[in-house]
Design a protein that fits this description.
The complex is a heterodimer of chains A (about 350) and B (about 425). In chain A, about 35% of the residues lie in helices and about 20% in strands. Chain A is of the alpha/beta class. The mean pLDDT of chain A is about 95. In chain B, β3 and β4 form a beta hairpin. Classes of the chains: A alpha/beta (about 350), B alpha/beta (about 425). Chains A and B meet through β7, α8 and α11 of A and α6, β20, β21, β22 and β26 of B.
């Protein structure tokens, strides 16, 4: 197998420059391996060769992360490696944050595989992001001998294009992605097994830990509705005839805005339901039932609020991935705010 | 109560011929006779009956329902009580099934929740139905039917065909027998008091067009939870009006072969006492969810359940019912396991459920429906290939010019089935 060219990132301590007194050291690049980096060739079964080592002080890194990133991207790109290795950083926060950010940047900007290793509570874990494998370590360098081969093993597999196993098998921290696999037993049988264990008070492992969601705090009430611009919007998939932008019936890939200036109500045939999660017959008959434009116009004429916004935002909220929904919500909110809208009636189905 | 016996006839071959009959593991179908039977419904203009066998280069889309052919040995009883017959109680006496055969209904798309079955290639790995010999009914109803009537006509045709084919199995030799003793509650409590008593709550969606299930012919929209014996569930008392996304809607086949019922029966009397099944409707409004879940909770306590499995039907809002009931049960000390699937985004990075509760600490997942797949072109497409762009799981451009398909597995019938019929699951990576 061909040797893999790698660049190694170390802090001033593991780079053998000094302790906390040298923490303000700006980044430098050195040919070949440094410190325990010299053991990497042997530890990887002669697969990985450290061609360059980048060393930077922890304080410098923490205070100048953007500048450091810029230098590292330039140096890494100039060394044309196949792999970028940072750390292990163990429990060291500044070192971990630099390692995580740099791995993420190298992977994203240069498309070069990157691995690092650190303690699960190190803030660098989150900065490494979903595309970078972070090997789990204990909080001190005593764990180097155990964790280094794991880190190198994943690095080799990534470069060779071989599959990486589960976090338990490989020793990395779950990256927050869930991948489909085949289980040895069918789901019903696993459910019965799990229930029997739970009833017997034996340990069992859920297959799906409960997700946690952001909380959206309600905005303060409008103090002067009569002067407010109000918008209507919906996740109920009310779109102009023929669904011109092809919003998907489920797991929508987009939200859209449609003009309703001068329109008094949504007529059957002019608008229709693109949503795949409810019986569309009633709303196709009268789309105002989901997006109440007719009622909003009456209130507008009565002067209950100053003006109805000239367009409405719409998407399909049918088994739509939460991350997509968060994004659409944020974008809709910004667009409406830019328009001077102060209140929104958002209907759900 | 009477014992229930389900006799399974393994069908190894399906062909067309002069007489509809089952002989030595071969089902022969007189296509004209079956078509005539279906055309007795004057709302059907035409029906094209086609066979699709495992390994063939055939794609069926949009699939509405899948039904296992069944026949009743006793008297004039129907295998789908309350649909074409009086609603006699199912799950007693003797029923025969044509194991290995399915009736698949297709035709013009009525709504987005209709799915796809590939008989070969990578898509076939996701569905039990790809391993069945399918009798496909391409149904064209008469003009002028509304969507609800259209859906009803197609649903009835599928059930009628399944009963017609099942009838042919009545005098045939059977291969395997499932016997469920007719135990009433006093029998169950006496059996072995040291074993934990387990209740199974099976959600059935009841939310409108293509989101309905029927219990003894009653649209579950009008129903509270119904307590059933295990045999009753397996014996055609619940039929599907095609609910939710293809990957996780329970077809009639899924109810007839409910694997949670089967697996609880295997443990019954050994490691647990299986009290029965609460077939529990899911509706959309919060007040309806609270009304139904509190009733299900009450019944679990009345029955003295110590453990409960709840299976979801569909995705999104039914997760609210799932969590609500889980919370009620766990707070009362009744140990609960949930069976669901996920919509975690195509990258698997989104939270996969629409609701959650800290009490739900025991969950079985049947996979992420958002996984993307490329399905190669098939020589034959039964139904309407253009629908692929519009069905759940598809998107504009899913059907590619060469006939291949780029879609989510959400569009494949039963791929993430929430009764756990398949063995797909997710792991955090």
């Amino acid at each position: 197998m061909a040797t893999i060219r790698a660049v190694h990132y170390l802090n001033q301590f593991f780079g053998q420059i000094g302790g906390e007194d040298m923490a303000n050291l700006p980044p430098r690049i050195i040919d070949g391996p440094v410190g325990f980096g010299t053991t990497i060739k042997a530890a990887s079964g002669d697969r990985i060769e450290i061609v360059k080592t980048i060393i930077c002080g922890d304080n410098y890194a923490a205070e100048n992360i953007e500048k450091l990133k810029e230098s590292v991207l330039e140096w890494v790109s100039g060394s044309s490696p196949q792999l970028f290795i940072a750390g292990p950083a163990f429990g060291a926060g500044r070192y971990g944050m630099a390692s995580g950010s740099l791995c993420s940047a190298v992977k994203k900007e240069l498309g070069i595989h990157a691995v690092t290793a650190m303690h699960p509570v190190n803030p660098g874990v989150e900065l490494a992001g979903r595309e970078v494998f972070v090997i789990e370590t204990k909080d001190s360098a005593q764990d180097l001998r155990r964790s280094l081969p794991l880190m190198l093993g994943i690095g080799v597999r990534l470069v060779d294009g071989l599959p990486v196993g589960s976090p338990q098998e490989e020793g990395y921290l779950p990256r927050g992605v869930r991948i489909n696999v085949r289980a040895p037993k069918r789901g019903s049988s696993r459910a019965v097994d799990m229930l029997l264990k739970k009833l017997a008070g034996e340990p069992f492992e859920t297959e799906l830990p409960m997700p946690t969601y952001d909380r959206v705090h309600p905005a303060p009430p409008l103090m002067d509705l009569a002067r407010a611009v109000i918008a209507i919007g919906t996740e109920g998939g009310i779109v102009p005839r023929g669904n011109p932008d092809r919003i998907e019936a489920h797991n929508a890939s987009k939200w859209c805005r449609y003009d309703i200036a001068g329109v008094d109500g949504l007529q059957e045939g002019d608008y229709e339901v693109a949503h795949g999660g409810f019986d569309p017959v009633a709303a196709n008959k009268d789309p105002d039932r989901v997006l109440p434009l007719d009622a909003a116009r009456i209130l507008e004429r009565e002067g209950r609020f100053r003006k109805l916004n000239d367009w409405y935002p719409v998407t399909v909220g049918n088994v739509t991935a939460v991350r997509s929904a968060e994004k659409y919500g944020r974008e809709m909110g910004e667009a409406l705010k830019n328009e001077g809208v102060q209140g929104v009636i958002l209907t759900s189905t | 109560m009477e014992e229930f016996i389900l006799r399974k006839i393994s069908i190894r071959e399906v062909k067309t011929g002069e007489y509809t009959e089952v002989k030595k593991g071969c089902l022969t179908i007189n296509i004209d006779d079956l078509a005539r039977t279906l055309l007795e419904d004057r709302h059907i203009r035409s029906v094209d009956i086609r066979l699709a066998r495992p390994g063939e280069s055939i794609r069926i889309v949009p699939v509405k329902d899948v039904i296992e052919p069944r026949g009743r040995i006793s008297g004039n009883e129907s295998p789908f009580p309350g649909v074409f017959s009086d609603p006699h109680v199912a799950g007693e006496g003797v029923t025969v099934s044509l194991d290995g055969v399915c009736v698949v209904t297709t035709g013009k798309m009525v709504n987005f929740q209709e799915g796809l079955i590939d008989m070969s290639g990578p898509g076939a790995e996701f569905s039990t139905f790809s391993r069945k010999s399918n009798v496909v009914l391409v149904i064209e109803p008469t003009d002028g039917l509304g969507k609800h009537e259209h859906e009803r006509v197609v649903r009835m045709a599928g059930l009628r065909a399944a009963a017609y084919l099942g009838q042919a199995g009545i005098s045939a030799e059977w291969d395997e027998e499932l016997r469920i003793p007719g135990q009433d509650l006093p029998d169950l409590y006496k059996a072995d008091p040291s074993l934990p008593r387990v209740l199974y709550v099976c959600q059935v969606i009841a939310e409108g067009l293509l989101h309905d299930n029927y219990i003894y012919g009653l649209n579950a929209q009008g129903s509270f939870p119904v307590l059933m014996t295990p045999g009753e569930v397996l014996d055609g008392s619940v039929v599907s009006g095609n609910c939710a996304a293809p990957c996780h809607k329970h077809t009639t086949y899924h109810h007839q072969n409910n694997p949670i019922v089967e697996d609880l029966l295997k443990e019954h009397g050994r490691t647990l006492v299986f009290l029965g099944v609460l077939v529990t409707p899911v509706k959309t409004a919060l007040v309806e969810k609270v009304r139904i879940c509190t009733q299900a909770f009450k019944m679990a306590r009345m029955l003295g359940a110590q453990g409960v499995i709840i299976s979801e039907d569909g995705g999104g809002n039914p997760e609210n019912d799932l969590m609500l009931l889980d919370r009620l049960l766990e707070k009362a000390g009744i140990r609960t396991v949930l069976v669901t699937d996920e919509y975690a985004g195509s990258d698997g990075a989104s939270p996969g459920l629409a609701d959650s509760t800290p009490e739900a600490d025991a969950v079985v997942t049947n996979g992420n429906g958002n996984q993307r797949v490329i399905l190669p072109p098939m020589e034959t497409v039964l139904g309407c290939p253009e629908c692929i762009d519009r069905i759940t799981g598809g998107h504009s451009g899913s059907l590619r010019p060469d006939g291949s398909v780029d879609m989510e597995i959400a569009g494949i019938m039963g791929s993430t089935n929430e009764l756990g019929l398949e063995n797909l699951m997710t792991v955090a990576m």
